[in-house]
Write a structure and sequence with these properties.
Blueprint: E1 3-4, E2 11-12, H1 37-46, H2 57-84, H3 89-123, H4 139-149
Antiparallel strand pairs: 1-2
């Protein structure tokens, strides 16, 4: 079981009685693990307006995984329906409905996605303004993805206490 130093936030699996980073004695504290990946998604949706605090890698990438699954399943169902209705008038209606649903879902997920991305950057002690790199074609998008994948600071920072 992982032990987390309540003083500096360092997580370790060693059997030492004191923290390697700050020297304080450990208190055994388990990391809260969500029951399923959809709970991460629901929690991010509930915190759509929370741009303060921090968000760990697991929380962020589980949200992104569920988001990708929703989009993929929606496209898969749409392609199956369209392949059944090839060259009929109904296929155009289905395409229009799919287009409207994709716009509605994009609008619905915009603020939760921005919020969780800003909190992910806060976990690394970076400003949410780093998301503006997305406006630089190709290079900026890749830079933001790399930043979002980096580990957070193992200690408290100006954006809040550690997520570990």
């Amino acid at each position: 079981m992982a032990r987390i130093c309540t003083n500096c936030g360092l997580e370790t699996y060693s059997s030492d009685s004191t923290c390697e980073h700050c020297g304080k004695p450990f208190e055994v504290k388990q990391k809260p693990i969500k029951e399923n990946i959809f709970q991460y998604y629901i929690d991010a949706i509930k915190q759509y307006s929370n741009f303060n605090g921090r968000c760990g890698r697991r929380e962020f990438w589980m949200f992104m995984l569920v988001n990708f699954l929703i989009i993929f399943i929606g496209l898969f169902i749409g392609v199956i329906i369209l392949s059944i209705l090839i060259e009929s008038v109904l296929s155009y209606i289905v395409m229009l409905v799919m287009l409207i649903l994709s716009f509605v879902y994009s609008a619905f997920i915009l603020f939760p996605l921005l919020s969780i991305s800003v909190r992910r950057l806060h976990d690394q002690d970076r400003s949410g303004l780093f998301l503006l790199f997305n406006f630089i074609p190709w290079v900026g998008n890749l830079a933001v993805i790399i930043l979002l994948a980096l580990p957070g600071t193992p200690y408290d920072n100006k954006y809040g206490s550690t997520t570990k």
